[in-house]
Amino acid sequence: GYTVGNALAPFPLLILGLTRLVRDADRRAAALTVVALLLVITAGHPESLLFAVAGAGIYFLFLLAWAGPKRWARPFLLSFAAGGIALGLTAVQLAPMAEALPHTYEQALRSGHYAHLKKSVAPRESARRSATFLLPFVHGESGRGQLREGFGVPGGYAGTILLPLAACGLFGSDRRRWAFLAIGLLGLALWARLAIITDALAALPLFDIAVTDYLVFLAAFATCALAALGADRLLAGEGRGAFLIGSGLALLTIGALYAVHEPGMLELMPKAFLRRRLLLEILPLLLGLLLFAVRPRRGIGIRAAALLVILAAARAVEAGGIYPSCPGDAMSPSLPFLDIIPRGAPVRMLALGEMFVPNVATIYELEDVRGYESMKLHAFVATYPLWTEQQGAWYNRVDDLTKPFLSFLNVGYAIVPSGYPPPRGWKLRSRDRNADLLRNRRCLPRAFTPAFVRFAAAEGERLALLQSIPDFSQQGVVGPGSGAAPGLWRPNARARVEITAYQPQSMVLDVEAREETIVGTSVPAWPGWKAKLDGKAVAPFSYNHAFLGFRVPKGVHRLELHYRPEGFVLGAAASLLTLAVSVLALLVRRRPSAAPGAVSP
Fold it and tell me: Which of 140, 377, 492, 558 has minimal Cβ neighbours within 10 Å of its Cβ?
């Protein structure tokens, strides 16, 4: 269910498209490649797009080299055309993301810190990491015990019965085996963080900020691809010796690895579980040996089908319990005590501690202030110490409801453990069997006018001022562009601010001000927010460091906010243009030149 998996699943289709580009070099092959790239891109994980294109590109270069200099030009050009069309069609998605990335915490962290880290590890640690290719549980298995730090994915394991089949394919005559072997070894080396290879790749642009561990999918794919070539050989009556030798070597290697790592595994998982997992790896290999121990004279198709059944059964048992099936209403059980929170209104909520993990709120049509996103506004992350405990890649945990910044963030409701005493400013509103719902009586609206404002140009100064504010209805900090004069706290003209319309990406305010005033909001200042005051465009400025603020003149005015990044507008235009050109190219067919006197079919 992760976007990584969704983005990498079309990789075999991309390999097929590139194979046909070299073989046929026609529009159908290009269209197939475009479809595969579209599936990768729209899955929503750009890092995996980089990895998929890199892995498929290596395979494609092998094919072009074998095709020879006289046959590589057209496939090469068609591959660029397919990539350009795919990027053009998805520009509506990629362009706004590219616009937002420079403003994210993740971009700053990866380019400023992660890019400069040494990615490779010592040879001994590389060997430990490589062991997961054959024993995926060697450093723990999620949900079955402890996990050794740095491990939590299978590490390229795809089923032991594939290993002798891959050996059979590797010793065949299909030239593609070398391309599969190359990308497979690359994926395994990068997962193992092998010195020289890992550091060389990490020195390249984009790869320097990428988590190259994920390229381990190439090892799993290459194993499957080589196994498919091996299955073809077995069906043709070839490769029995390679299959038997591969089975024996796999058994010996798995047994030796288990013996070496058993003491460490027993510290993480129960012995009974380890023996069961070892049996699930050894049994398919033993059954494969029994099937082909006797030289087959007939029934080779039945034996090959039996290998497929063994593979499917073993993988179902090994991986079937990772995500257990649950009743349909387990995802979003009825919670009547939350009905008191208005839906479709500009008010946020949270849950205390580990309760009600963020994103669950979306199912109930609630806005959870804690968030749980892969891209966070860098300026917003800087405010975390004012109200939350950051938990790395996990969500933001809130343990103290008395933080003044929570009221500024428009947090009107909080889910707390049953019987939790309401802190000052909070009141019990409803109850469930295991939780209470509290109402924040100091919650500020999404847009308001503070009593006093103070200008601060530097980020550090703004954050220090925010740390000292006890009541954000009284004080707000403005940045460059606000027109405020430097100095101490200055009175801000009071005004009536009413939110007359609200949608997730738009908000309309009616403002009645006796004097020129500053309107502050708790809308995070992502680039792309546009504002109009009485129909004329106005520029927002920084309010409380990470949010939108506006200067409104004396009188009655309408302030309209809507989120529409320039990247979305330009990307949509590029996507529509690419779509039109692509449809035209598909409809226009070249008429074959006929010889004199020939009859057109």
Answer: 558
pLDDT bracket for residue 504 (50, 70, 90): confident
How confident is the model over 568-590, as a mean pLDDT? Answer: 90
SS (H, E, C) 488-515: CCEECCCEEEEEEEEECCEEEEEEEECC
94 burial level (CB within 10 Å; 0-12, 13-18, 19+): buried
Count of C-beta atoms within a 10 Å radius of residue 251: 19
At residue 358, the 3 state secondary structure works out as: coil
Predicted TM-score (pTM) above 0.85: yes
Q: Which amino acid is at 373?
A: E
Q: CA neighbours within 13 Å on the CB side: how many for 366?
A: 29
Q: What is the DSSP string of 124-189?
A: HHHHHHHGGGT-TTTT--TTSS---TT--S-TT---TTHHHHHHHHHTSS-THHHHHHHHHHHHHH
Contacts within 8 Å (CB) and 24+ apart, 580-587: 582/34, 582/85, 582/89, 585/27, 586/27, 586/31
**What distance in Å separates the CA atoms of residue 232 and residue 37, rounded to the nearest whole number?**
28
Q: How far apart are CA 445 and CA 454, in angstroms?
A: 20
Q: Please report the sign of the dihedral spanned by the C-alpha atoms of residue 395, residue 400, residue 401, residue 406.
A: negative
Are 542 and 549 contacting, i.e. CB atoms less than 8 angstroms apart? yes
Task: Of 67-76, 149-158, 503-512, 592-601, give the lowest mean pLDDT range.
Answer: 592-601
Between CA 176 and CA 194 the distance in angstroms is 25
* DSSP assignment string, 251-287: HHHHHHHHHHHHHHHHTTS-HHHHHHHHHHHHHHHHH
Distance CA 412, CA 542 (A): 23
* pLDDT on residue 116: 95
Q: Above 50 in pLDDT, residue 598?
A: no
Give CB contacts under 8 A, 24+ apart, made by 283-289.
Answer: 283/314, 284/159, 284/160, 284/161, 284/310, 284/311, 284/314, 285/160, 285/161, 285/163, 285/164, 285/247, 285/250, 285/251, 285/254, 286/251, 287/161, 288/161, 288/164, 288/243, 288/247, 289/244, 289/247, 289/248
pLDDT at 373: 84
Q: Which helix (H) or strand (E) holds 542?
A: strand 541-543
Residues in the chain: 601
Find where tokens 């029934």 sit.
299
Alpha carbon distance 356, 397 (integer Å): 11
Helices 73-89 and 46-67: crossing angle in degrees, nearest 10, is 160
Tell me which residue has tokens 């976007």.
3
- The C-alpha angle with vertex 230 and arms to 226 and 232, in degrees rounded to 5, equals 120
* Whether the Cβ atoms of residue 541 and residue 518 lie closer than 8 Å to each other: no
pLDDT band at 599 (very low <50, low <70, confident <90, very high): very low
pLDDT tens digits along 354-395: 999 888 898 999 999 998 888 999 999 999 999 999 887 788
Other C-beta atoms within 10 Å of 198: how many?
23
Task: Kindly report the backbone phi and psi dihedral angles of residue 435, in degrees, each rounded to the nearest multiple of 5, phi listed first.
Answer: -150, 160
Helix, coil or strand: residue 322? coil
